[in-house]
Fold this sequence. Notes:
- This protein is an all-alpha fold.
- The protein has one domain.
- Helix content is 80%, strand content 0%.
- It is built from 3 helices and no strands.
Amino acid sequence: MQSRLPDLAEDELPVELVELGQRIQKQPSEIRAELDNSFDRVVESIRRRRRILSLVQEALSQLRLDIKYLMFDLEMTKRERDALQAELDGQEPL
Length: 94
């Protein structure tokens, strides 16, 4: 019989959940049949939450990078503005 328990290293599920799955596997088939569906839903929920968390972390990282680029662009625009204003006023740029 192929184990339906996910590989811990692959999914990095909480140890407690893996232990629960192992205990469910040891139960008689009547009890196991009742618990399998619930266990599978919990595992899928954890996987879905991890995927969502990963997407949010990636989006935040990209947002941070975008903000850094925007801040750089703003600073350079201010310097260019100040240099042009100094030229118009007949002064040397800063």
